[in-house]
Design brief:
The complex is a heterooctamer, with two copies of chain A (384 residues), two copies of chain B (98 residues), two copies of chain C (186 residues) and two copies of chain D (299 residues).
Chain A: E1 2-6, H1 7-17, E2 22-24, H2 32-43, E3 50-52, H3 57-69, E4 74-79, H4 80-85, H5 87-95, E5 101-106, H6 120-123, E6 131-134, H7 138-155, E7 159-164, E8 172-176, H8 180-186, E9 203-204, H9 213-242, E10 249-252, E11 259-263, H10 267-280, E12 285-290, E13 292-294, H11 298-305, E14 310-315, H12 325-336, E15 343-347, H13 357-369, E16 378-379
Parallel strand pairs in A: 2-3, 2-4, 4-5, 5-7, 6-7, 11-12, 11-14, 14-15, 15-16
Antiparallel strand pairs in A: 1-8, 6-13, 10-12
Chain B: E1 38-42, H1 52-56, E2 62-65, E3 68-71, H2 81-85, E4 91-95
Antiparallel strand pairs in B: 1-4, 2-3
Chain C: E1 2-9, H1 14-27, E2 31-36, E3 46-54, E4 69-72, E5 92-96, H2 101-108, E6 113-117, H3 119-125, H4 137-148, H5 153-163, H6 168-181
Parallel strand pairs in C: 1-4, 4-5, 5-6
Antiparallel strand pairs in C: 1-3, 2-3
Helix pairs in contact in C: 1-4, 1-5, 3-4, 3-6, 4-5, 4-6, 5-6
Classes of the chains: A alpha/beta (384), B alpha+beta (98), C alpha/beta (186), D alpha/beta (299).
Bound molecules: thiamine diphosphate (2 copies), iron/sulfur cluster (SF4) (6 copies) and magnesium ion (MG) (2 copies).
One thiamine diphosphate sits between chains D (29, 50-52, 74-75, 102-106, 132, 134-138, 143) and E (26-28, 57, 81-82, 85).
Chain lengths: 384, 98, 186, 299, 384, 299, 98, 186
């Protein structure tokens, strides 16, 4: 059924269709409609779930960890400061190998207080061991929640679905809402082998000495690496049932392209306008959207960029004292492939500064005019 | 309850590991008797079977069997609580290894 | 692509109006985005919402800087807000006002086409909201259908029926009445 | 040896907690757990914030508790227990009890908010705090349970603890939860009875267990019980319970109280105190007791 | 004066000599001796400071932020879970441009509970905007606290000094303790221009809209970049007064080397043994120790590695689903220099698994035997 | 126009807070700040966790408060204020008062632990919570200050708030801090006097300010004061103070109480309540009042 | 106090920015009078100078001058509290722009 | 480089002993590391501490697997702990015991040189600790000087004077007495 949903509603509908059993969440702009809508849905009896109205995001994640370890499908949603407050427990959920799914509305980080979008909140969680997706429209928001559970429960890792604040979270778009039966067919009930169980009592997470600790980290990383395959499989299944196609990456007019905009999130959509315009003018340019950031699809990116003339990586984020984060991580991937493609790194749109087609044209223009980047960050749209 | 010494769990290779650090056995392999440098010894002649020593042993290393209290020296850490709480003062503390 | 900006006050249902309009577009098979100004506006303060309409999927995700049309839900805003900021040459301005379009045309200049509807009176007649805060958004929607030509009354009525929680009938009537009482719409 | 009368146990004989655990000699915290687990009739799950018990239980791949147990971040037990509770409810295991077990630091300090939140929501869980009056697992630093006068490594003798102990029982009672109680390892029968009572009630229950720590209090391991008894007998640690924040009940009477000095003098951590300071402690103890008596009358 | 100090004491002495004014800290193994020793020092009146015995690390950082904004020199120390619990406020301190100095004892992250060393705790804070140092002995611990304040107060950024758990924190080594007068000469009193001031009331950190937010991020990053120069300057001054030399990087037998071990922390010291042994055998090998991780000395690393035959990056950390973090960030730096040096990435010693000379020999052996790395991570010492 | 008698102001005339701020029409929170800042004699600094006031004060580069102010993370005000206090002490500005100002969410919920910690340490700060009984800044979600019966977006009409309001004043009183008090925007003289009293005392002071929110309570902006008065007159929000956790004092008597219905019926958030539920509220209110009377007698 | 409308602060270039987001001015540039759709008007004939309206205005947009209470319409948001609290009912609420 | 491992029980001052020894080395101009076993051992449980000594700066930062010498502070440990684990061929084993070295030699085998000192008796004589928990670490230090030849008595005494908080004189005497009463030290 086609419905007009804002991104926050798409999250809530996705969680409902996934038949989550325990929700623990705390309100924060620009995520609030998620807690509000799910409160309603649960109060109306349309979803059989316990909604724990915790006193902080830290407790939200703790409750999800408790619930997931006990064998229930757990869900939360947050943004920015809330996500950061969970930080210790993000590591916990991941090392605990708990298939929690969380929606994070990408909002910039305070101080100063800000509620507008950029990716610093979630990207600064890149080392916590969570699978991370960055989505580009509200349909993908909904679908990725469902896909997320399927994936999480297969590889025993938590999944974070990131969407741009306001641009998706508060923007109404038409979304195809799948039937519950189809979702049920795709996503079986959660029934983990390792869980808190009165019949088989175990202690989870006890003191782990240096004799035994490292293997868990190895397994954690291996599960991440396996996820790449599982994502492909799961997306394949999803496409069969629902007819919509997703993957680690998304390509737009890439086949014969010489130049590539490497993007993530909603900027990827606006970039299509720019690419279409440039194509009209004969510029062979395409878009490589990085949909999956953890596990990092380094091989796949290198393959997609192989043979291209130049690539322009667009980061709506920054690692202070380094560079844009997608940019840095992609360089790492290309280095080992012995690739020598000129790769430009642009930082744009921090704190919700709007990214228009004009800005994106400017980026392409810059890249076209320069042989190689001379700086680690090319700043776009900063007052000087 | 008279606990028997348990076995160590050895994780030699990756395949021996559980998915996450979940326990696979109890701690009864741990010979906490080696922590002891004083040993409680019960004088059954004086003992009145009040059960106090059993009640207060933190390990627990005292168990009830054959209608008497018994010390499990594999686990007794030699804290001396039983010695100190016995109302009949019928547990003595002897130097270990003497 | 048609881009519309709605002006109202915090607490007045401006965003709801944009959402219902978008709903109607979707029901008609069109593509649409509806979104509020991304801010922290408080009850009483001037607020803005946007609708972007197209007949193909909309890739553009940036804000709207040069709207095709403007809708003003609260006439008192005209004193403090420059509602035609960025409005495209030839754009339409639909104002909730008891005045005639001609009385307003001067204020806005010649490059825009001004239309009015007395949505406040209609809302009060249908007992939507109170005198100090009438709820005019459904009336405005009816006027939008007539004025901006982006959807039709059947769809708007369906969208209102699904989108308002209370007094459904009154709201539908308000829309209908506004549709017929729009001034300057020809 | 003459024929003995049979041993009559006053607390359940069955042992849930197993020996071989890593507590110090004479540890009150291990004894507290032994009592608490004895009190469980039916099935239960635990969650544990960081505390001595994170070590006592044994390292991976071992566990001494004998019940399902989730080790959890130091500040998170209240919320974690809420999550376990919710999951059990959804999985049709409403009858399985959920117990959070934390030290005084994890309860009075860093984990307090999550507890207060769970209490406010009246989650159906039992929170037990074993109180050894400092952060012991990290080597004896002050907590807000550390009493006036005590030495710890962060309240050195020259600047010993100057704040009175945070009154958690009263604070939790002010949350108006179904049940709040003090228990002590020196009074096992009272201890077990209160845990049983708590487990029989619905909603949020909070039990505060006095558990001397030989290593941290600088006492002889064999004195653990003696000192715990003196805490009660000197009125420093009254054994009482409060239902719904208003119904007070003293479960162990103190007909012949002893001076606090008797309690203090056995402990290295109080060695430096002068008479004046001991008088302050005596006075504070008496005042608190009087206040408690008033509340007992009001019930 | 030469004194036997464990790393935690070196921290405390460094803070004392820096005349910190507000300390807010919370105990955690393996940092506890810091809070204990500073409690004593303050109680003894040897340092005129307020010691706030907060109820959590989160509050420790909050108190430091309050104190620093008010114009006092603030200090804290923590480790692992404590650092992670501060996460939201790490961003806060950095964006607030507050020159707080923090010692972090590198300990692995739970679950399972662990108290042993690796760098995942601090490296997973790499995007919070803090300057980060990784030190290799207790002398450097002490010196870097003092240097840290000098730097922090010049560039208005917080500084994190990281040291390995136990290997430094609990290991007694002889340390030259500088005279107070010399430290006073080096480090003037803290007197910031922007601070809470009743004479000039301002609000700090108010809502910052997308019109004005991004420039602060630009300035933050620029301050990081400037730090590189300021570190060089400050270390120069320090050397003049105290005779000990530090920098962004540290080189060992690098001049004529063909092979390079790229290290951080105490592994760098053990590596010297291996390098000395290999040199004996005629292998031209040296060590490049990355002392400063933020700002990331990409240029400097590229310059140091230019012309070398191979480099072996040793990471006691991992970004799950990516690779060792030093490894990844170095690849980024070399990519833009158009360098093609075979760079191998090893992950070793997680959760305190001991790193011996034998392991390091194994690493060099592996690198010598392979032309190019075929994997993003070469795992060392994992049971298979 | 005849000659008027001069205006005699009952609260300080000087305005610290400046107009142009961003509060909604008729906002109780802005009024609360106006009163609080009027009460300051001498110098003071503020810290503010996230709350409506983070917006009300105005965006960068503006501020309406007229005093130094540190915006801070939502959960951190208690500790931040402690840090400011410590810094001022070290900088020779012991006399400058430190005030933390938070909403009910930042106080009762996410920031509670830092407050409890600061209270336990008896930091010399004044914490003022303006209570609008929900998370308003994010659009009216329940907090643990939301009273029984209320609608919020997370306690929808079909499942309205079922937990009683967390009793922060009693919980803080159980911390035995020097001063705890209830104030209301409808009683400015009482409000100002209590803030002045608190600021004159050393140690940790906690003031809980009733501040209706037209937007969140679904009330007419012009009814803010009327409703706040009714809260007091219906005994729902008694104006009292507690010193050192024991000395209770009722500062505004309620000789002619009105039924809670008078208070409830003006508010959209209670519109759905049935008679039965209103009776529950009346009963709870009476019980709380009786309990308070007992405490007043005990003093 | 009768507050005068203040000035906007414009940050056109990097050099205009403070080190961190620290405020540079108050909010009196903000014409909150534009929020108003009802306007309070005082009938001084009835007014008894009790000061109640002044006391309860949340902006504050009422000031005392010349021994009377005055509304500062640049800031008055039109909440109506003064209208509702005036004991003499001498403030009327008029539609804005009429 | 000389590497020493000390065996004791939690709460017995084993780590303090290693620290004082290291202090003496530093005072003598040597290079040293002293560190505990990195664990969570509790009061009563067997614990271990290490000292690494060299005449040049010590780069090695890994643990000690093959010590040159072993020191055992508590004789009851011998029943449960394999104290000579990893000990180098020809290494020395210094045990706190009233027994003669010859009585113990068998237990350890021929490849190690065994020495004993009755540190417990000395500690009790000097009233250091109680009967059930004597504090033997300073006595052991005196014996170490004689037995292991890594420092001298003057330095150890100075280190003890700076390193023990109470009963300084008694501790120094204990060290001296142990120095002279070491058995098997030649
Ligand atoms: C966030 C965080 N901070 C600090 C620690 C270190 N830590 C672990 S246990 C503990 C003390 C526990 O004290 P308490 O709760 O009283 O239990 P006890 O050890 O005394 O039994 C501390 C400080 C931690 N694990 N996590
Ligand atoms: C860690 C974190 N979680 C959530 C938020 C979002 N948030 C900001 S203000 C607020 C509600 C504040 O409620 P309250 O304290 O009652 O103040 P009010 O807005 O009602 O005045 C919330 C949920 C945040 N800023 N930080
Ligand atoms: S000495 Fe302690 S451990 Fe041993 S039996 Fe007695 S009480 Fe139990
Ligand atoms: S306490 Fe003493 S008397 Fe009682 S059972 Fe034990 S040994 Fe016997
Ligand atoms: S330190 Fe204290 S609480 Fe911890 S195990 Fe030892 S005796 Fe028990
Ligand atoms: S939402 Fe409520 S508290 Fe917030 S500014 Fe508006 S009226 Fe005031
Ligand atoms: S209407 Fe409100 S804002 Fe205006 S003067 Fe009256 S009280 Fe003040
Ligand atoms: S409240 Fe009414 S009577 Fe009193 S001063 Fe104001 S206008 Fe005059
Ligand atoms: Mg404790
Ligand atoms: Mg609120």
């Amino acid at each position: 059924m086609r419905k007009l949903l804002m991104g926050n509603h798409a999250i809530s509908v996705g969680a409902t269709l996934s038949r989550v059993q325990v929700i623990a969440a705390y309100p924060i702009t620009p995520q609030t409609q998620v807690v509000e809508m799910l409160s309603e849905i649960v109060a109306d009896g349309k979803l059989n779930a316990e909604f724990i109205k915790v006193e902080s995001e830290h407790s939200a994640m703790a409750a999800c960890i408790g619930a997931s370890t006990t064998g229930a499908r757990a869900f939360t949603a947050t943004s920015a400061q809330g996500l950061l407050l969970m930080h210790e427990l993000l590591h916990w959920a991941a090392h605990g190998r708990l298939p929690i799914v969380m929606a994070n509305v990408n909002r910039a980080v305070a101080p100063g207080w800000t509620i507008w979008t950029d990716q610093n909140d979630s990207l600064s969680q890149r080392d916590t061991g969570w699978i991370q997706f960055y989505v580009a429209d509200n349909q993908e928001v909904l679908d990725t929640i469902i896909l997320g559970y399927k994936l999480a429960e297969k590889v025993h890792l938590p999944v974070m679905v990131n969407l741009d604040a306001f641009v998706l979270s508060h923007t109404y778009e038409a979304v195809e809402v799948p039937d519950q039966e189809k979702v049920d067919a795709f996503l079986p009930p959660f029934n983990p082998e390792w869980k808190m169980d009165v019949k088989n009592p175990r202690a989870f997470g006890g003191l782990t000495s240096s004799d035994v600790y490292m293997e868990f980290q190895y397994n954690h990383h291996e599960a991440m690496e396996q996820s790449k395959k599982v994502i492909a499989e799961t997306c394949g299944e999803f496409e069969k049932i629902f007819g919509r196609k997703y993957g680690l990456l998304e390509e737009y007019r890439m086949e014969d392209s010489e130049y590539v905009m490497v993007t993530s999130g909603t900027i990827s959509k606006t970039s299509r306008i720019v690419v279409d315009e440039l194509r009209e003018k004969g510029v062979k340019i395409g878009i490589l959207r990085v949909r999956t950031f953890r596990p990092f699809p380094g091989e796949e990116i290198a393959a997609a960029l192989a043979g291209k003339k130049k690539a322009f990586v667009i980061d709506r984020n920054i690692s202070y004292g380094k560079s844009g984060i997608f940019y840095d991580e992609i360089k790492g991937a290309l280095y080992n492939k012995g690739m020598n493609l000129p790769l430009f790194g642009f930082v744009i749109g921090l704190g919700g500064r709007d990214v228009t087609p004009a800005h994106l044209h400017e980026i392409v223009d810059y890249g076209m005019k320069h042989d190689r980047p001379t700086e680690e960050i090319i700043w776009m749209g900063v007052k000087k | 309850m008279n606990f028997k010494p348990g076995k160590k769990v050895v994780l030699e290779k990756l395949a021996d590991y559980p998915l996450m650090p979940a326990s696979l056995a109890d701690m009864t392999h741990n010979f906490t008797g080696s922590w002891r440098n004083m040993r409680p010894v019960i004088d059954y002649d004086k003992c009145i079977n009040c059960g106090t020593c059993w009640k207060f042993c933190p390990e627990p290393a005292i168990y009830i069997e054959d209608n008497k209290v018994n010390v499990n020296y594999y686990f007794c850490k030699g804290c001396g609580i039983c010695v100190s709480e016995c109302p009949k003062k019928c547990i003595t503390f002897e130097e270990e290894g003497k | 692509m048609i881009e519309i900006r709605l002006h109202g006050r915090g607490g007045q249902g401006t965003v709801v109006a944009s959402k219902i309009l978008a709903d109607a577009i979707v029901m008609g098979g069109g593509y649409v985005q509806a979104f509020p100004e991304f801010g922290v506006e408080r009850r009483g303060a001037p607020v803005v919402a946007y609708v972007r309409i197209d007949n193909k999927p909309i890739n553009l995700k940036s804000k709207i800087y040069q709207p095709d049309h403007i809708v003003v839900l609260d006439p008192t805003l005209l004193q403090s807000v420059n509602v035609t900021d960025g409005l495209k040459e030839g754009g339409k301005v639909l104002v909730n006002s008891e005045k005639e379009p001609s009385e307003m045309q001067e204020k806005f200049g010649k490059s825009f086409k001004v239309m009015t509807v007395d949505a406040t009176a209609i809302a009060l007649e249908k007992r939507l909201g109170s005198k100090t805060s009438p709820i005019v958004n459904t009336a405005i929607l009816g006027a939008i259908v007539k004025a901006l030509n982006v959807t039709n009354m059947d769809l708007i009525i369906k969208a209102i029926e699904e989108g308002v929680p209370l007094k459904v009938e009154e709201n539908v009537e308000a829309a209908k009445k506004a549709y017929t009482s729009l001034k300057g719409g020809e | 040896m003459t024929e003995k009368k049979p041993i009559k146990t006053t607390i359940p004989e069955h042992e849930v907690m197993k020996p071989g655990h890593l507590a110090c000699q004479g540890c009150g915290a291990s004894l507290a757990m032994r009592y608490a687990t004895k009190a469980i009739e039916g099935e239960a799950m635990f969650t544990l914030p960081a505390c001595c018990w994170s070590v006592i239980d044994g390292p991976f791949p071992y566990s001494s508790l004998g019940l399902p147990l989730l080790h959890m971040a130091f500040e998170a037990a209240g919320a974690t227990a809420s999550g376990i509770r919710a999951a059990l409810n959804m999985l049709g295991q409403k009858k399985v009890k959920v117990i959070a077990w934390g030290g005084d630091g994890g309860t009075f300090d860093i984990g307090f908010q999550a507890i207060s939140g769970a209490a406010e929501r009246d989650e159906d869980i039992l929170y037990i705090c074993y109180d050894n009056e400092a952060y012991m697992n990290t080597g004896i630093q002050r907590s807000s349970a550390t009493p006036y006068g005590a030495w710890t490594t962060t309240t050195p003798v020259k600047h010993f603890e100057k704040r009175p102990k945070k009154d958690m029982v009263e604070i939790m009672a002010a949350h108006k939860i179904p049940y709040v109680a003090n228990v002590s390892v020196a009074y096992p029968e009272d201890f077990v009875k209160k845990v049983q009572k708590a487990l029989s009630m619905e909603g949020f229950k909070f039990i505060h267990a006095f558990a001397p720590c030989p290593s941290g209090w600088k006492i002889k391991p064999e004195d653990t019980i003696k000192i715990a008894k003196l805490a009660v007998q000197s009125k420093i640690f009254p054994l009482y319970e409060v239902e719904y924040g208003v119904k007070y009940n003293l479960t162990v009477k103190v007909p012949n109280p002893v001076p606090v000095l008797d309690y203090l003098k056995l402990q290295g951590r109080f060695r430096h105190l002068t008479e004046e300071e001991i008088n302050i402690i005596q006075k504070g103890t008496d005042e608190n007791w009087d206040l408690l008596m008033k509340k007992l009358e009001n019930k």
